[in-house]
Task: inverse folding
């Protein structure tokens, strides 16, 4: 068959067809708060732990996830076993999709290896690494817990829903039209200051704002001593909030190379930068410079605003690209 299209109107789909239709949703936990699928209460007496049905803010208790397009729901805590071992062993706490398990295609399991045969797939929740003669509470536990959430687009920040009405990790793009510069990216989360999931402190966190990323550049023209070597950027300082960044390349107007023998260095920014642009403490950076082979130079930005450079070998230009600091 050269082409396929489904679902067919008023006809059921096979499991493989359903998986294909829902593949774009992604695999992950549907986090509505309350720490879904949390591994807790490790017991040395029984060598067990508990996989949590989340205690959600609305009082209901369940964890839910999507794997290979199939839904999984945990309505109550379940006990998982981590038997003692005679050699170093990693237990994988997973949701396993098995197409041969038709009554429950996705199921919570503890396995020692990830078997992908016969179409199996996994949502990886935790690693529990046990050593011989080691208490379960001393085992190395690593949390993975991938989560899945949608991307939504709004014209204004004021139009965004309450964060607690969304899945954790929901991305909200705020962009008001094709030519608008009023754009930003937010993520819904519910993490408190301690770093633990909090049921009642949901908020939108701005994670990207193009306006915040724009530097306003001011070029420093050629002088009788320092000029642009006619390649790369011209010397300039960029300002963005308290962040300062330099760019450009510097050469000597005389055409001579910068000499490694110059112990006092070269004041490559003729005239100090403004005091308000200087760092609180003198900082030194390693940058590229040009000569007969790849070389490096040291550039120092002092707390008074002076910018000096030293070269290890004679070189014809020095790059300022990548030099960045916080103004005092």
Result:
């Amino acid at each position: 068959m050269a082409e396929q299209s489904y679902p067919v109107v008023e006809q059921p789909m096979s499991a493989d067809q359903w998986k294909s239709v829902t593949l774009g949703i992604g695999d992950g936990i549907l986090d509505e708060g309350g720490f879904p699928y949390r591994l807790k209460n490790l017991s040395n007496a029984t060598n067990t732990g508990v996989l949590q049905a989340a205690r959600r803010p609305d009082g209901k208790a369940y964890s839910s996830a999507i794997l290979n397009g199939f839904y999984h729901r945990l309505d109550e805590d379940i006990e998982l076993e981590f038997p003692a071992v005679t050699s170093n062993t990693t237990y994988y706490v997973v949701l396993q999709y098995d197409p041969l398990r038709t009554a429950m295609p996705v199921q919570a399991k503890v396995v020692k290896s990830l078997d992908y045969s016969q179409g199996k797939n996994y949502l990886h929740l935790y690693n529990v690494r046990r050593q011989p003669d080691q208490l379960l509470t001393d085992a190395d536990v690593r949390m993975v817990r991938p989560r899945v959430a949608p991307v939504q687009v709004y014209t204004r920040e004021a139009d965004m829903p309450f964060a607690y009405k969304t899945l954790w990790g929901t991305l909200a793009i705020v962009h008001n039209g094709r030519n608008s510069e009023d754009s930003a990216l937010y993520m819904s989360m519910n993490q408190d200051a301690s770093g633990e999931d909090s049921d009642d402190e949901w908020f939108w966190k701005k994670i990207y704002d193009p306006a915040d990323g724009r530097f306003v550049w001011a070029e420093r023209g050629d002088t009788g001593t320092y000029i642009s070597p006619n390649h790369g950027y011209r010397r300039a300082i960029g300002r963005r909030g308290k962040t300062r960044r330099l760019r450009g390349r510097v050469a000597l107007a005389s055409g001579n190379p910068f000499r490694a023998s110059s112990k006092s260095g070269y004041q490559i920014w003729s005239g100090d930068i403004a005091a308000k642009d200087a760092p609180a403490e003198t900082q030194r950076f390693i940058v590229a410079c040009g000569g007969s082979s790849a070389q490096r130079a040291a550039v120092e930005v002092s707390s008074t605003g002076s910018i000096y450079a030293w070269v290890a070998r004679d070189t014809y230009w020095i790059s300022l690209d990548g030099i960045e600091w916080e103004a005092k």
User: Anything to note?
Assistant: Helices lie at 15-21. Residues 10 and 18 are 14 Å apart (CA to CA). The chain has three domains: 15-143, 151-208, 216-326. Residues 192-199 have pLDDT under 50 and may be disordered.
